[in-house]
Amino acid sequence: MVSAREKGPILPGATIGVLGSGQLGRMFAIAARRMGYRVHTLSPDADTPTGQVADHEVEASYDDLDAVREFARRVDVITFEFENVPAATVEAAAQIVPVRPSGDVLHTTQHRLREKCFLRAHGFPVTEFRHVRSRDELLSGLREVGLPAVLKTAGYGYDGKGQTKISSPADIDRAWRALGGQEAILEAFVDFEREVSVVAARGLDGSFAHYGAIENEHRHHILDLSIAPARIEAKVAREAVEISRAVLEELKVVGVMCVEFFLARDMRLLVNELAPRPHNSGHFTFDACLTSQFEQQLRAVCGLPLGSTEQLRPAAMANILGDLWENGEPLWAAACAFPNVKLHLYGKLEARRGRKMGHLTALAADVETARNDVLAARRCLCAQKT
Predict the structure, then answer these.
(1) The domain containing residue 212 runs over which residues?
(2) What is the pLDDT of residues 293-351, one digit of tens each?
(3) Which pTM does this prediction carry?
(4) Is 358 part of a structural domain of the chain?
(5) Which of 88, 96, 120, 315 could form a disulfide with 284 if both were Cys (CB 3.0 to 4.6 A apart)?
(6) Are residues 49 and 161 in the same domain?
(7) Same domain, 256 and 318
(8) 327, burial (CB in 10 Å: exposed 0-12, middle 13-18, buried 19+)
(9) What's the angle, vertex CA 294, arms to CA 292 and CA 297, rounded to 5?
């Protein structure tokens, strides 16, 4: 069944449904409410980052299809703030209301093996990989892709979860046990020069907008710092955007997607992962661009024209993890003493090691100054208390 609400743009005053309730949904809700939309969110949790700023929060399991259908009846379009939503949930919602991006996009991108197979089948550059369902297939794959390699669970992974590096034969048994019998993908290790991403949007009419190449630094598999624009050659940056555009076109994405790349030492770009939603590396757009990635997601899923992605000043974004709470509440005033630094906190009720609690964004005349300022501001958060 196709909803009559798909016939034209979904205009301010309408209600947007968000599956998921974390910080991405929170910033999306802020952008949506600023433009006059109402926001409903559904997730298994209560008093969530998204729920705190949404008009209505539904606490229900994604497997509770009756609750999902009732949620869909009360909104005009549904989008996502994370991709690990069961296919049955998407199908139940899509019978009632438009879901953007589509269930087909989620089906491909929420599973590492399906994603890599899609990319390879359509000629996009990826590292060598093999499907692993048994220890024998792991050994065979290692003979083919070589060492070092990375063994990852095939589905439902993020922030480095569900993956183990195999550097030598001594690591094989440990890596296999860590899988716990799950289906996996084995990837050749990439000795990369740096990691970059492109956050882009595709509208309902096929229009395309992007935020350029963003440079990313990770710590313990979690994004630590993003710099925009990336400090790479203009030719490489253009190629990253061209590949990203082709990926969004091939998938027929309606919404925002992030394409993550490894930049190898020979300057080859290899697609690492796809995220069919706003992305941590695009948080700087909230402060630095005419249209943030969150407003762009709203425009796309509502069938509105995409906004300008012009970046007003060079920027750097640093994540704030729960580790900073180990010695007490961080010193917020110290970070706010930097006049060019913006503080964003997500309203999460419990700080845990490795948990993303917020971020800082610095705007400056050049990326080096922005990087130095945002790191200095973050260091001040945990300076010795007196």
Answers:
(1) 192-381
(2) 999 999 999 999 999 999 999 999 999 999 999 989 999 999 999 999 999 999 999 99
(3) 0.94
(4) yes
(5) 315
(6) no
(7) yes
(8) exposed
(9) 115
